[in-house]
Design a protein that fits this description.
The longest helix has 17 residues. The termini are far apart. This protein has a five-stranded mixed β-sheet with strand order 5-4-6-3-7. The chain has a three-stranded antiparallel β-sheet with strand order 9-2-11. It is built from 13 helices and twelve strands. It is globular. The chain has 262 residues and is an alpha/beta fold. It is 44% helix and 14% strand.
């Protein structure tokens, strides 16, 4: 909003693009319908990065609430990927508990209580886990944990993808006001449309992002473990509702953290 006058934007949350319309009038209200898949050419889900040999025997969300397991992920108040982590854990618990909110809240209280360090962002959480040696499990996007595994190859980290998971769409948009001012509208639109081409979709998977092209994904079944994904909107309602209910001051997150301190 106050930085570079970008021609195109890519974010990991719909709300981060929507604000360009709501607060800056930089894009139209229907920006999400201008490109396929809600203007999301690629997506991810949540992954667990565990230490060499998976010593704590971590395989699914229920393993993360054991008393002997310490977690690392950023603060959901300040981090987009942490909000997805929180919502993924809630959604998985909700399914396992058959929609019993009291049981889900009990699960989430222990889940949050097991967090050893709440960093402000993903980079800090990576440093805490990989360089400071804290925690048994680092939770982040599947794309991120795989790239961290490669970055710290000598440590032998392993990636675990839980069975029930969240669809983390990464929306893109051309910024109408800027492309018109910069004379870059044609190039910006061409670039974002190219991201949906088979060539681009294949390149994107090199960085452990999932894509919606079935032919590309069918050829990479061994790279991307099968997981049952749910949409934020289907489980929790719209993103504005999610932010108000769970992450606003006094919301569900604050209540769960307070319960864990008792």
């Amino acid at each position: 909003m106050q930085g570079l006058k970008a021609d195109v934007v890519t974010y990991n949350q719909v709300t981060d693009v929507q604000i360009l319309h709501d607060k800056g009038n930089l894009i139209p209200a229907d920006w999400q319908s201008r490109l396929p898949n809600n203007s999301s050419p690629f997506y991810s889900t949540m992954g667990f990065l565990v230490r060499k040999g998976n010593p704590k025997n971590i395989h699914d969300w229920n393993d993360l609430v054991r008393s002997d397991v310490k977690l690392i992920f950023p603060n959901p108040k300040t981090s987009g990927n942490a909000r997805y982590t929180y919502l993924a854990a809630w959604g998985a618990a909700d399914k396992a508990d058959g929609g019993d909110k009291a049981k889900t809240e009990q699960f989430m209280t222990q889940f949050l209580k097991n967090v050893e360090v709440f960093d402000t962002g993903g980079r800090g959480a990576t440093t805490t886990f990989a360089e400071r040696g804290l925690g048994d499990v680092l939770i982040s996007f599947e794309s991120e944990v795989n790239n961290i595994r490669k970055q710290y190859e000598a440590q032998g980290f392993e990636v675990v993808i839980p069975k029930t998971n969240i669809l983390a769409e990464f929306p893109v948009a051309w910024v109408d006001k800027n492309v018109k001012a910069n004379g870059t509208e044609k190039a910006a639109k061409a670039y974002l449309n190219w991201l949906y081409s088979p060539q681009a979709q294949t390149i994107i998977t090199d960085y452990y992002y999932r894509v919606n092209n079935p032919k590309v994904m069918d050829a990479l079944k061994d790279k991307f473990p099968q997981t049952e994904l749910f949409r934020v909107e289907d489980k929790f309602g719209s993103w504005p509702e999610v932010m108000k209910t769970h992450f606003a001051s006094g919301g569900e997150l604050d209540k769960l953290l307070a319960a864990g301190r008792k």
